[in-house]
Each structure stands twice: as C-alpha cells, then as structure tokens.
What we know:
Layout: H1 3-13, E1 19-29, E2 40-49, E3 54-60, E4 70-72, H2 88-95, E5 104-110, E6 121-126, E7 131-135, E8 141-144, H3 146-151, E9 166-168, E10 173-180, E11 187-191, E12 198-206, E13 217-225, E14 229-239, E15 242-255
Parallel strand pairs: 9-15
Antiparallel strand pairs: 1-2, 1-5, 2-3, 3-4, 5-6, 6-7, 7-8, 10-13, 11-14, 12-13, 14-15
Keywords: Protease inhibitor, Thiol protease inhibitor
Amino acid sequence: MDLKDLLNKASTSLNGKPMAGLLFKKARINNGKGREVGDILGWDCIVRAEDGTCFSFYVAQSHIGMTKPVQIPCPLGIRIISSYKIDIEDAIKILNKKDCGDTFVDVELSWPLVPDCNEPYWHFRMTLGNEVFIGANSGTGGCHKFKELLNNTQKMEMTNTKINDINIKVGERTKVELEDNGGSTGYSWVIGHKPDSLWLIESYYIPPEDPIPGKPGTRVFTFYGAEKCQDSIQFIHVQLWNKESAEIIDCAVKIS
C-alpha cells in the first residue's frame, strides 16, 4: 500500500478527517526475521491529521485490511512524511547490495528531526548487530558495522543505564530491556561485541504505556544460549551519523 492510499484509508476510517502525512511506521516481521518483502506481515503506523492530532493503527502488508485508527499523543522529534520515492521492496533490494548481512530483525521508516537528516530514512537492524540507513528519496545510505563503530568511537560509560549480567544455561532464553525513544531522536541501540554462542533471536520496540510526548519506551533484545561460554557483550547507544555520540554498556555473559 503506497503512502497516498494509506492516508486515504486512515482518513476514511476517521469520517473523512484530512491527513497531513505519515510520522512513523514499523514492520511486523514473520517469526522475527526477514530477508524479503514477503517476510513482512504488515506495519504499525502513526499518522498526523491536518488539525495536529495523531493516530496509530496496524495495516496488513497483503492489503487484507487495517485496524481502526486510535488517537494518541503526537510523538516528538520526527517530521511529517508527505511523500517518498523508495518503497520497502526497493529498499530491501538496495539493502541486499550492501555487505551488511542478509537477515533483518527490525525495519522502520521515519524522518528524525535533526539537521543531518534531509529526507525520510528506512532503518534496518540486522541479525549481525549491524544497522543500515537508506534514504527513502535518494536511495543512498550505508551500512554501520558494529566493529567499525567500536573502532571509530571513544568509549563513554553510561551512568544512568544499568543492565544485569547475562547468566543462563544452554537452551535458555533471556531478555535485555533498554530505555529507548523508538528512533524519534535519531539514537539507536546497537549490539557491539557479542559471543557467537549467545544468539540474538529477536529485537523489538515497546511504546510507553502512557503515551506522553517525549516519554521513552523500551527496546527489547531476546537472546538464546546455544553453547557454554564465559565472555561479555556490549550495548551501544549512538546516533549512527554521529559516531562520536556513542555510549557503551559492557555486561558479563555466562552460559553454563
């Protein structure tokens, strides 16, 4: 469904309320991992009406239908998207030409309200911990590999975020939850060093229960202990176009 159709359907569901544009959309991915557009089941969307009110709803990728838009407080830190040229199918084709991994666990479209962003961006998180930004108009962008990120940034320990060490048995799962603004500020959580025996099987964002503008939600990473090991893992909070902003949390990992 293109943006014009999406906004028209939202308007129709709201008794003809005129829509100004899209603010944000996030993919729901089949089994939490995808390689092609067919792996995307649908989109969680936030749109803004011309009167300044905002609404959220889910729309199925296969045009099955959509849920009734529900009014929410408008998120801060993102611009209105009135049009874009690169759809998700073309964005995935561009993604597959980059040496950044071939399996994505998270896909978002937004336009962060920061000077360096002059167009909307597709944001892919990959299973390898890498991140890819692709301009939704220009098609340009790059792969931000976590190893390069670590080599090119000064490490600054985060003092306001604490994570318990990971201590699980082989075959067990565990979740790490981090405060996150859902990409609206341009910041993103990236996984740095990670032992191969600790598999990342899922990553998703939970909006705040009380959707107050500016209030952060939660980024959840789900891991699986595949083999015994004693190592560490790094979680990096960074604006990917400003690598000097990186803040890093180190956690011990023990799989017994």
